[in-house]
Every structure is written in structure tokens, then in C-alpha cells.
Amino acid sequence: MIELQRLNKWYGEFHVLRDIDLTVRKGERIVICGPSGSGKSTMIRCINHLEEHQAGDVIVNGITMTRDVKRVEQIRRHVGMVFQHFNLFPHLSVLDNCCLSPVWVKKTPRKKAVDTAMMYLERVKIADQAHKYPGQLSGGQQQRVAIARSLCMHPDVMLFDEPTSALDPEMIKEVLDVMIELAEEGMTMLCVTHEMGFARTVADRVIFMDEGQIIEENDPETFFNHPRSPRTRAFLGQIL
Ligand code: ADP
Ligand code: MG
User: Fold this and answer.
1) Contact by Cβ (8 Å): 216, 228
2) Best probe residue, ligand 1, of 7, 14, 46 (max atoms within 8 Å of C-beta)
3) Following DSSP, what letter does each residue of 66-122 receive, concatenated?
4) Mean pLDDT, rounded, for 40-60
5) Which of the four, 23, 39, 68, 164, has the lowest number of CB atoms within 10 Å?
6) Which ligand 1 atom is nearest residue 43's CA?
7) CA 22 to ligand 1 center in whole angstroms
8) How far apart are CA 17 and CA 43, in angstroms?
9) CA-to-CA distance for 192 and 13, rounded, in angstroms?
């Protein structure tokens, strides 16, 4: 579903991604962790061209990413993304946040878009707030809306960039529960998160990044109990 081949990226002189190789198969759940500044966000943002890479290949569903706008749009249709700070449109109701892309990008008739949105809002248990504005909801509720909004585009893969990092502790579980449900339904997921309980329950593989490289990659049991690299051990020592 996703192939990163020898992916390299620079911000000016700064070499932020170094020879990243990663394959994500259909239905796989991958957790990415690593210190702040290690390039986790940059890497997943390259997958839907929110960041541009300079060398190597990004291939999604067999389509190779280029600068070509049509190509970028084609790839983005397959890829849903959920951000740390929700990124909902503040001037649109919850329902309209969910209908915007289906109506304008996919040309879905409004009635059908509304039905689909209500179905996903139901799934994240927030359908009763559909006519409120994001600012009237808690952080956890906003993040569940953001997940529902992504699902309305029927993505084949979902990227999560620290979806619970901006939340108060009591709201983390309600968002993780939605993510666990998605995983159980077979969604292909790439999650940057430091929620190691989530990684243990859900991940097929855990990836550790440091200084723009993938340092270690293993099944959760091996990753947590027998980390190979001293850098991984040091990191786990700090967060567990
Ligand atoms: P992470 O998500 O692992 O915390 P990021 O991918 O956000 O790391 O950032 C990796 C590195 O790239 C950091 O050192 C950060 O300061 C730098 N960086 C991120 N975005 C930019 C940018 N737009 N311009 C220059 N440097 C950036
Ligand atoms: Mg980040």
C-alpha cells in the first residue's frame, strides 16, 4: 500500500530524512516513535505530499508521487490524515467539516455526503454534536470529528501524527478507543504516537526513528522487551 524507497529530504542544508526504506502492506498497523525532531512528522507528511522529498521514491497504491498536481490529488484520495491539532475548519459545523471534501473533491451529492458523515459521526459516538462548531467541543471530541471527517473520504490508509499529544489525559482514551476500533476493522494505519499501550495492543510493527533514520523495526513484543539499539533502549527508558 505504501512504499518509501531510499527517501531523502533536506530543509535547506539540514538533512532531515536519510535513506528511509519502509513498506506498509494492506491491513498493517505500524506505530512510529522516536525523539522530538527525529523526522517522524516529516516522513509521514511526505506520503501525501504535505512535504516534498528530494531523493528516493514515495509509492502509494502503486502510484509514484511526483510534483504533478493530478498525481498528488490521485494519491491523496487514498490517504487520510489526522493531525495533532485536529485542523478542523472553525467556521464550519461538525457536519459540514465532514461533508466538505466529499462534496467538493469527490462531487458526492450533498444528501449522500450527509448520510455518510452521520454514519461515521455515529461510529465515533458524536452524532449528537453534528450541528455544533469545533470551538464548542472538547479536544477529544474534536479529534474524533477529525477522524470521522477523514473516514468520509473512504481512505485506504490512515496516517496519524501524534493524535493524542494535544489532549488532556482524560480524553486520550476516547480517541485511542476509536483508533483501536478502526484497527480491528482492518484499516491500514501508520501512527506516530508515544502511546505505548496502543502500540502493544494494536501494532504489527513498531518503528523507532532518530536523526532522520529508521534505527529499529520489530514486532511490539520484541521491540519493547528486547530493543537492539542503545538509542532505542535510552528512548524507551525515558518514556516508559
Ligand atoms: P518529529 O515529528 O519527529 O518531532 P519533525 O519531522 O517535525 O520531527 O522535524 C524534524 C526536524 O526538521 C526538526 O529538527 C525540525 O526542527 C526540522 N523541521 C521541521 N519542519 C521544518 C521546516 N519547515 N523548515 C526547517 N526545518 C524543519
Ligand atoms: Mg512531529
Assistant:
1) yes
2) 14
3) -S-HHHHHHHHTTEEEE-TT----TTS-HHHHHHHHHHHTS---HHHHHHHHHHHHH
4) 96
5) 68
6) 6
7) 19
8) 7
9) 25
Vertex 187, ends 183 and 189: CA angle to 5°?
A: 80
pTM for the structure as a whole? 0.96
Pocket of ligand 1 from Cβ distances under 6 Å? 11, 14, 16, 34, 36-42
Secondary structure letter of residue 39 according to DSSP: S
Give the SS3 label for residue 13.
coil
Instruction: Quick: pLDDT tens for 98-136.
Output: 999 999 999 999 999 999 999 999 999 999 999 999 999
Which of 149, 148, 193, 187 lies closest to 172, judged by CA?
193
Is residue 3 within 8 Å of 59, Cβ to Cβ? Answer: yes
Distance 236 CA to ligand 1 centre (A): 21
Contact 164, 83 (CB under 8 A): no
- Between CA 216 and CA 34 the distance in angstroms is 10
CB 7 within 8 A of CB 43: yes
Q: Considering only CA atoms, which residue is closest to atom 22 of ligand 1? A: 11
Q: Say if residues 59 and 23 touch (Cβ distance below 8 Å).
A: no
Pairing, β 157-161 against β 188-192:
parallel
Ligand 1 atom at shortest distance from the alpha carbon of 35: 3
